[in-house]
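User: Here's a chain of 242 residues. Predict its fold as tokens.
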Amino acid sequence: MSDVTERWYSGRLQQDITVMRWGAVGTPVLVFPSAGGDAGEIERNGLVDACGPLLADGRVKLYSVDSVAGQAMVTKASSAEHRMWLLNQFHECVRREVLPAIHADLGGQAIDVITAGASIGAFNAVAVLCRYPDVFGAAIGMSGSYRIERFYDEAWSQDLYHSAPLQFLPGLEGPQLDRLRQRWVVLASGEGEWEDVGESWRMAEVLGAKGIPNRVDNWGPQWDHQWPTWRQMLPQYLRELT
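Assistant: Prediction complete.
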């Protein structure tokens, strides 16, 4: 079980949100769930246990948050416009609410946080790094789905533009880009069932065109779009980054 669970009402999201934590000391890592997952999904699917040695050694502290926008994406319970608005608000909630909670948990230290996630979680991990490089230091995208508009009936809005790195990065200039060029993105994918390493290459091409350091790791055809893959990937990359 997690060490700490916090829940509060987010005015940005107009609903409650949960944040969970595992570990006592170490580099803070915010792990986004898959599309419809909640904050406890990574524990139920063995990702926390897979990072057990890193937690025990005080290398990392893991945090996770409900995938509010992803849940709406999966259920399609509202219009595409509302779901795109919710995605933008979710990222703002992570920056303005979840991140301060993490910093408070760290004793007020404003330490750069590593982001990570699989599938839609990978999209969120890369997106918040690109949107807020002042507070996030690196992103680990595992089996990522980065062309996000296909989950919104191919619709488009300003909310989607601001949320999706494939859309906003080509035109990005100024201090945000300068800071991003000091960050690091790992894009890992298998080539097994339900995997599409082309998504990672597409993301890498856009990052590279703006001079943002990144790497694509192709794990090959024996690795599927499943939790066993991500249980192998995450500890490996956290060892590299911490």
